[in-house]
Amino acid sequence: MRTILVTGGAGFIGSNFIRFLMKRSPYYQVVNLDKLTYAGNPANLKQVENWKHYHFIQGDICCRELVEDIFQEFSVDCLVNFAAETHVDRSIITPEVFIQTNVLGTVNLLNTAKRHWEKTPQSISDKKFIQISTDEVYGSLGKEGYFTETTPLDPHSPYAASKAAADLLAKSYFDTYGLPVNITRCSNNYGPYQFPEKLIPLVITNALHKRDIPVYGDGLNVRDWLYVEDHCAAIALVMQKGKAGEIYNIGGHQEKTNLQLIKTILTYLHDNVDSSITENLIKYVEDRKGHDRRYGIDPTKIHAELGWSAKILLDTGIEKTIRWYLDHEEWTRDLIAQGSPQLDLESHGSGDGL
Question: Where are the strands (E) in 191-319, listed by range?
Fold first, then answer.
């Protein structure tokens, strides 16, 4: 039985990944390390909390002693690092928090994995460190073209810069020490259990309660959208078959402007839930500082080398997501009761569990 340490596993993508593993293989032992800040929610994992091969540990990836103890106790074979501060607007206000978690926390994980896996160098090829990153590290695209794995890094926010720094450090541990590292960079994720500060759940929640739906600038910023279960399937393939040292871009090739996406959600809610929900709820607000105009991921490499491609079309995924939030209003209500979500019109892939 292989032991997978998932950091940030109580967040949106991390919790979906743990459920993905549980449904598909009885051969994994999963250890979930999460600090349980505002975006990490134990309720995300009620389905797995009694699974005999699942262990939850509340704690900080920056704590050297804790991470050391976990490696010692569980003999970790693979580490999947979702743990990160991910809210772009928060990073503009308090960038030092993002450096602490996203950079120093990642270095602590890398150092601990290196120490333990070097003890048995004959089996290090069976280990894997997967750094979950984001397309934001590439900066902004024009109207044409896509980010590839060789696109130069050009981050424009403290969040994106902290993720780029973590990526480069992870790469350096492969180049310098031979640590079996993969880096994955994904486009905007959406789906069940996403914290309602992110664009899609925020639009759904606000619309259902007839609250204003804020739109940055002119609303024409373009994002490539990826259903979270497709992302989980890609990570599982990288974990199983990814070549050490390689970067894999994971994207859905399903681009929409923020405004198009918002109107799609409002139309569905108007037609299927409440006819009084209309586009009159849209309210334009001052644009975000350093707001990238367009992201687009080229997933050719992961398709050619590992056989992955996105399965869920955006229209289908949006409907599935809306239905999930309609069926889980109590989940959303409990989160909002803990504190009003702060608007973030991105939904990136490094996880929001820590």
Answer: 213-216, 222-227, 247-250, 255-257, 282-285
183 contacts 249 by C-beta, under 8 angstroms: no
Active-site option among 34, 77, 85, 136: 136
The answer to whether 136 is a known catalytic residue is yes
Check: pTM over 0.85? Answer yes or no.
yes
Nearest-angstrom CA–CA distance, 352 and 354: 6
Answer whether 258's CB lies under 8 Å from 190's CB. Answer: no
Q: Domain residue spans in the chain? A: 2-260+263-337
Which residues are CB-neighbours of 317 under 8 A, at least 6 positions away?
Answer: 190, 191, 225, 227
Residues 177-224 pLDDT 10s: 999 999 999 999 999 999 887 899 999 999 999 999 999 999 999 999
CATH architecture of 2-260+263-337: 3-Layer(aba) Sandwich (3.40)
Catalytic member of 54, 146, 159, 295: 159
Catalytic (active site) residue 255: no
Q: What is the pLDDT of residues 212-262, one digit of tens each?
A: 999 999 999 999 999 999 999 999 999 999 999 999 999 999 999 999 999
CA 136 to CA 146: how far, in whole Å? 12
Q: How far is residue 171's CA from residue 271's CA, in Å, rounded to a whole number?
A: 48
325 catalytic? Reply is no
239: nearest Cα among 181, 294, 285: 181
Catalytic residue among 34, 60, 77, 135: 135
